Amino acid sequence: MINFSWKIKSISKKSKARTGIIQTPHGNISTPAFIFCATKAALKSVNTFQAKEAGTQIILSNTYHLMLQPGSKLIADHGGLHNFMNWKGPLLTDSGGFQIFSLGHGSVAEEIKGNRNNSKKKKSLIKIDEEGALFKSYIDGSNYFLTPEKSIEIQRELGADIILVFDECTPFNVDKKYTATSMQRSHRWAQRSLNSFNNKNSFLPSFGSSGKQKIYGIIQGGIYEDLREESIEYNLNNIDVFGIAIGGSLGSTKEQMYKVVNFVGNKLDVHHPVHLLGIGDPKDIWNLVKSGIDTFDCVSPTRLARHGSALIRSKEGKININNSKYKKNTNPIDINCSCNTCRNYSLSYLHHLFKTNEIIGFNLLSLHNIFFMNNLMQIIRRAIEVDQLDEEEMNWYI
Ligand SMILES: [Zn+2]
After folding, report:
1. Which pLDDT belongs to residue 122?
2. Which residues, chain by chain, have CB under 5 Å from ion ligand 1?
3. Cβ-contact 292, 285 below 8 angstroms
């Protein structure tokens, strides 16, 4: 039976950057890799075959959304999430914690943009205590109580290859004392998640043995280096996890985020693949692979596409297809891009689709952005293998 493994292929002599392979029962992931978000078991406007054709290696879905709708039992009846959405490749689910707390406190992206406190979104988190988190469904207003055990049970039913321990996503606008208390509770929740994960009675007959899933721990500690250090110690020495994710608050500026990720990355080892939660800006990826990050995820490629933004290799990073200067432009988004959209459609046509709200426009722009991110990661992997990351980053911007 094909199982799981993590192998490092090459390590830079100039930084912590490395290439590797995560082997899963649904295929291999060459790292560094980008994980695309199929939040509610769907990549927005792109089907799983198109995603695969655009070079996608792995996608993720969110436990929080799927537990509310359609419910994990229904998905388990399909034999799991792979079958439900017909994605044959590697798949990851988060624990649900991130969404509960980001909807409760405001999101990491809002935080980095500095507008978490201005969020007009209705807060859904009702109560958090040692046992778990009580929150209100955004669909029908009913109350849900999510615990580490419940999160693992749901993630078992969803059946993704890689699953995450249940944690609290601590907001940045709290003091160090709250961050420390929250981190320690998340550590206890991680242990409970693992106990549940390792409990043979929790296995679903349809998913067979424990070899079908692996679990990642999550490093907490916010912007405080001593807390991050404590959480690294905990994750590396006290619990047995396949991979490590860097979670919690990364600060309120990009500089702070680089500092936190660099601090944590420098202290991690080669024995676990490292995932950075919620970061997808190409500039950040060029920078953060040097801290030893192996996988990234973000909703940005498809979200940007829905707003008419196509990713390009410039310092600005994107163009807006709605701009009238593209009205008569017969070139593709990028003459050097070999995605289906760039090989077959002009800027002028894409501009027209967005101006007339034709929904195929979302699909064509999303396909370009997905291909773009996969191509970026491939270029980064090659650059690490020849240890020319800085040089290739310069070449990237044309
Ligand atoms: Zn393209």
Report:
1. 56
2. 337, 339, 341-342, 368
3. no
